[in-house]
Amino acid sequence: MQVWRSGVYLLVSLASGIATVLALPVLWYPGLARRWANWHRNRAGRLLGIPLEPRPALRASGRRAWTDPATPRDLLWLPVNALTGFALGVPTLLCVGNLVPGAVGTALWWAFSPEDRPRLFVEVAVTGWATALTLGPLQIVLLVTLAYLCFPPVARVHARICLAVLSHSAAEDLADRVEVLTRTRADVLDAHGAELRRIERDLHDGTQARLVAIAMRLAVARQAFSDVPRNDQFVQDLLRDAHEGTEEAMTELREVIRTVYPPILADRGLAGALTAVTTRCVIPTRLETGDLEDVPAAVEAVVYFAVAEALTNVAKHSGATTAGVRVDRTADRLSVVITDDGAGGADPRRGTGIAGIRRRVLALDGTVDLDSPAGGPTTITLELPCGS
User: Fold this and answer.
1) DSSP 14-28
2) Dist. CA 169–CA 191, nearest whole Å
3) For residues 210 and 218, what is the distance between their CA atoms, to the nearest angstrom?
4) N or C, fewer C-beta in 10 Å, the chain?
C-alpha cells in the first residue's frame, strides 16, 4: 500500500511539474501561486503523516500581495516543483511503464507480428517462450523490487523538499503568533467588557433594587412604630439598626458598582464620562476627543479611572492653574494624554495614584509614560489596545 501511494504521489508530482512549466505565466500571479503551493504542501503533509496548520489564502492584492512574507516561497516553489517533479517523476514513470512490456511479453508475445513484438530490458525482443518465460518474469521482479525499495524514500524526499521550501520561518511563526494573540486579546477585551456590563446591570437592577425595597419597608415600619403612643423600644432599636445597616450596605454597593464599571460610561459613553470628570475638576480642564469609534468596556473603565485619578492628583499636589486631557484613536491603539502646568516633580514612588494608573493600564497590555521635570509641566501618556 505504501509503495502504491508513493508511486501515485511521484507520478502526480511529474504531472504537476509539467503543468507548472506550461502554466508558469499564470502561476506567477501571487494568489494562484499561493493556492498551487498550498495544494502541494497538503499533499506532502499527508504523505509524511505530519499534521500541518493550514496556510491562509492570500487575501491581499496588487503590491501588497507581492510584499506578503510567504509570497517569495510560493514563487520559489514553482521552479523547484518543476525540477523535482521531472527529476523524481520520470524514473518512476519509466519503472511503471516497463512493467507493462514485461507482463505483455511474457504472456502475449506470440500475438504480435515479428516486427512489433515486445522488447524486454529495452533491447531484447521476445522471439520464443524461452525468452518470454525467463526475461519477462525477471524484468517484472526487478522492477517491482526497485519500486518497493525506491518509491517510498524518493517520495518522502520530494515531500520534505516541498515542506522545506514552503514552511514558515521562525520570524513568520512569531508574527503569526503575535497576530493570533492580538486577535484573542481583542476577543478577551470584548468578553470582559460584556461581563463588566452584566455585573453592573445585575448589581444595579437586582441587588441594589432589593436593598432599596427593604430600606423603604423598614422606614415605613419605623414610622408606624413611632406613631404608636405605646411601643416596644427594643423593637424600634432593632428596626433602626436594620434600616441604618441597609443604608450603609447600599452605599457600599454603589461604590462597588462604580469601581466595577461606572454607570456613567454605560449612559454617556467614554467621551461623555470624561466630559463629566473634567467639568467636576476644580482646576479648569480642557478636553479634546477625536473619533474614538467602538472602545471595549474594559478599556473605557481604565481610561475613566486613570483620568479621574490623574486630575485628582493635579488638584491636590501640582499647584497647576490649568490642565488638559486629549484622547485619540489610531487604528487599534487608544492614546490618552493628560497635562498640567503645575510644579512638576511627580514621582510614582511617593504615592499610590500614578502607581495605580500604571497597574490598571499594564493589566491590559498598555503603556504609561510619565514626564514631570521639576518646575513642570507634567505629562502622562497612556497607550491602550482597543481592538484588532
Assistant:
1) HHHHHHHHHTHHHHT
2) 33
3) 12
4) N
d(C-alpha 322, C-alpha 365), whole Å: 30
Residue 123 backbone phi and psi in degrees, to 5: -110, -15
pLDDT digits (tens, 9 = 90+) for 11-68: 999 999 999 999 888 888 887 888 898 899 989 988 988 877 766 666 666 667 777 7
Alpha carbons 187 and 185: distance in angstroms, whole number = 5
Q: Quickly count: other Cβ atoms within 10 Å of residue 375's Cβ.
A: 9
Cell of 201: 446591570
Separation of alpha carbons 47 and 6, rounded Å: 8
Kindly report, residue by residue over 260-295, the tens digit of the pLDDT.
566 777 778 888 889 998 998 888 999 998 888 788
DSSP type of residue 350: G
**pTM of this structure:** 0.45
Does the CA dihedral 167-170-171-175 come out positive or negative? positive
User: In terms of C-beta distances under 8 Å and separation of at least 24 residues, what long-range contacts does 327-330 make, across chains too?
Assistant: 327/270, 327/271, 327/274, 327/287, 327/288, 327/289, 327/290, 327/292, 327/303, 328/289, 328/290, 329/290, 329/291, 329/292, 329/293, 329/295, 329/386
In the chain, which stretches have pLDDT less than 70? 54-63, 99-139, 143, 169-210, 217, 221-222, 224-239, 241, 249, 252-262, 350-352, 387-388
DSSP H helical ranges for the chain: 2-22, 24-27, 30-48, 63-66, 71-97, 99-107, 129-166, 170-202, 208-227, 233-260, 263-280, 297-313, 353-363
- Torsions phi, psi of 98, nearest 5? -80, -5
φ/ψ of residue 121, rounded to 5? 50, 40
Q: Write the single-letter amino acid at 113.
A: S
What is the CA 185 to chain-centroid distance, rounded?
8
At CA 357, angle to CA 386 and CA 198, rounded to 5? 55
Residue 135 grid coordinates: 526475461
